[in-house]
Amino acid sequence: MFIRTESFSQYIRQYPVVTTLITINVVIFLLTLLPVIGDRVFVAGLGANYLIEQGEYWRLVTPMFLHAGFMHLLFNMFSLFIFGPELEKVSGKARFLTVYFLSGIFGCIATFFVYDSNFTHVGASGAIFGIFGAFGALVYYTKRMLPQLRQIILPIIGLGVVMTFIGPNINAAAHIAGLIVGFLIGLSFFHPKRIISWRKPKAVPKR
Asked: Under CATH, what is the fold of the domain 8-199?
């Protein structure tokens, strides 16, 4: 289910939202590597609680597009590359973006309220955990119909939560908030009645 077999061109065509998000994150990371301008870009978007307290509310969004090093970027973008396409395909572009952005934003909001003024953070992990949460909601509704999804997603969620609390320098508030928000949004999006309404054929206007 999560094995990517598409060619590069097929992947871009079939999953434009995921492709765009990966591209934006990579481009911004490359910008942060440039002399002078790189530091300015990073500092301008850094999730710094003390600056949010002063009214710089864009920092509740911009940290989602910044990463603290290549491995940080690689881990998050690889997760998006593998798991994002299935959610984009199942939910549609607009709903996928809703899960991604709201999970990421609420992850930043949780970070602001949980940690002290000196706390700073970057990374798309809250949004990535939102994707896992949305899949968790899909598992909740499908249960026996998609056993393969359940066998893959539940261990990944469990492992992700465990690593959140035992790994170094991990923003636990963003991870857990993103996971919960993604799950709650998924409960709404993937409710059986709503899915049926998606699939109803649209009436053809008479001429």
From this structure: Rhomboid-like fold (1.20.1540)
Phi, psi of 48 (to 5 degrees): -115, 115
Whole-Å CA distances, 97 to 103, 146, 173, 180? 10, 24, 21, 16
Name the pTM for this structure: 0.89
Mean pLDDT of 61-72: 96
Query: Per the residue annotation, which of 103, 125, 191, 197 is the catalytic one?
Result: 125
The mean pLDDT value for 80-90 works out to 94
Q: Higher pLDDT residue, 167 or 26?
A: 26
Active site residue 9: no
Out of 175, 188, 191, 197, pick the active-site residue. Answer: 175
The answer for residues whose C-beta is within 8 angstroms of residue 183's C-beta and 6 or more apart is: 133, 134, 136, 137
CA distance 78 to 22: 9
C-alpha 205/C-alpha 164 separation (Å) is: 52
Known catalytic residue: 188?
Answer: no
Q: Is the pLDDT of residue 193 over 90?
A: no
User: Span 137-163, mean pLDDT?
Assistant: 84
Are 139 and 183 within 8 A, CB to CB? no
